[in-house]
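Hi L.,

As promised, 2,5-diamino-6-(Ribosylamino)-4(3H)-pyrimidinone 5'-phosphate reductase:
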Amino acid sequence: MALDFLSEPAVTVLGMRPHVVAHLAVSVDGATTGFAVDLARFYALATLWQEDVTLVGSDTILAQEPALISAPQPGPRQEGPLLAVVDGRARVREWDRLRRLGHWSDVLALYADQSPARPPDSATAELVTGYEHVDLAEVLEKLAARRDAQVVRVDSGGTLVGVLLELGLVDEVSLLVHPVVVGAGRRWFGAFGGRLGLRHANTEVFEGGVVWMRYCTA
Ligand SMILES: NC(=O)c1ccc[n+]([C@@H]2O[C@H](COP(=O)([O-])OP(=O)(O)OC[C@H]3O[C@@H](n4cnc5c(N)ncnc54)[C@H](OP(=O)(O)O)[C@@H]3O)[C@@H](O)[C@H]2O)c1
């Protein structure tokens, strides 16, 4: 029986949402795939935010599911963030393995009204918002109200970041730019077609020519 995230007691403060940071490894031409990512540096830098929630796109999780089968399973990390996966089409299967991976304290499936039925024996906590798609603004409000989430780090190949940008829900953009041009491929801003002013916050250059650029939105 799936646990209902909403049934947890809490005081709801409408309109409040956490600080949202999108941290991505990109090529010089903004692609998120098709090149070798400096993963050690990427994840070392990701610890900077000490996020309360890691918000991940389902396609990012699905890309990792084969590797999860053989990954060590030390168990949930009590002090770790919550892993929340936007899974409107209910495609993610390896919830237990994700929970026991040793990175997160727990997992939360984010579904919409129209999401396919989940297995009846599912023990994964879930939050249902939106009709066809997960309502990301409502999710963030509920995470603030129900989990006191103050910082959310988005892990996505760009699609989810693009939707969040369209909705004006990204506060900080962190790009780890790798010295390569890959041509075709998904960009870090997804299908975002608007114009977004950015305020430079910091730049660092690392060995090997990898450049870390941080910007605040608005
Ligand atoms: N370079 C990097 O930093 C980096 C980081 C992470 C991943 N990756 C790579 O990037 C690839 C996956 O990234 P991706 O960009 O394809 O996908 P993604 O961002 O991981 O997943 C797409 C997400 O967007 C959601 N979405 C789409 N439209 C929406 C809407 N209108 N409202 C709400 N949610 C919506 C989808 O929900 P549904 O589930 O409902 O469709 C899904 O959760 C993988 O190859 C992965 O290895 C790279």
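Residues 88 and 111 are 5 Å apart (CA to CA).

Thanks again for sending the construct details.

K.
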